Amino acid sequence: MWRERSNKEILRKEIFMLEQKQKGGESPLTSGPQFGFKNKNSWREKSKGWINKHGSSVILPVIALLILAGGIYLYANQKNQDEIGSLSGEEFTADLQGKISGLAVEEITESSTGETEITEIIPAGRKENNSIIEKAAKGNGVTHLARRALKDYTKDHPEELTNEHKIYIEDYLKDNIGSKPLNVGDEIAFSEDLIKEAIDASMQLTPEQLKNLEKYSALVVSW
After folding, report:
1. Fewest 10 Å CB contacts: which of 44, 131, 190, 213?
2. Residue 122: pLDDT above 80?
């Protein structure tokens, strides 16, 4: 009788499990704790749905704004300032950074006593048609030639200029002539009228602007 009761219980359980399976429910054997797997899948599905729904309206505009900001930054860095005189003290000198070079053209020789001597080799300038012509030596740029043109000009037209005035003047001349690479022997003509214009402009500098130029004039080895 006990065995008959056990068989009935087993048969009842099998019928119950079959009914649950037909109804789409979970069997007692498969039900139980899922350890958050359903929650994780639900979160993943929600994230994927949000991206699909809002990707074009949120993510793409953000990427476009980043690209636009990068383009504006590059443009601002490459744009040259046209009017130096209208800038504040530090802005005025910022454009000069990297333009000042104190390198001199030199020749190394040995004296009669056996000591090494260093002599600067600077091509002489000449005057033609109200202009001063300067010739480039090895390592020279437009700024070097502008510096020499100012020096030749002040031999005949003396001016009381500080080194800071000279820094401004040679940069003024370079900006008007145009910065470009030079080969040995290349010549540039500096109009005496342009040099006088640069000198007059340098006289309008404020004490603050002249003070800011001291860090650049200190880099020049020889005037």
Report:
1. 44
2. no
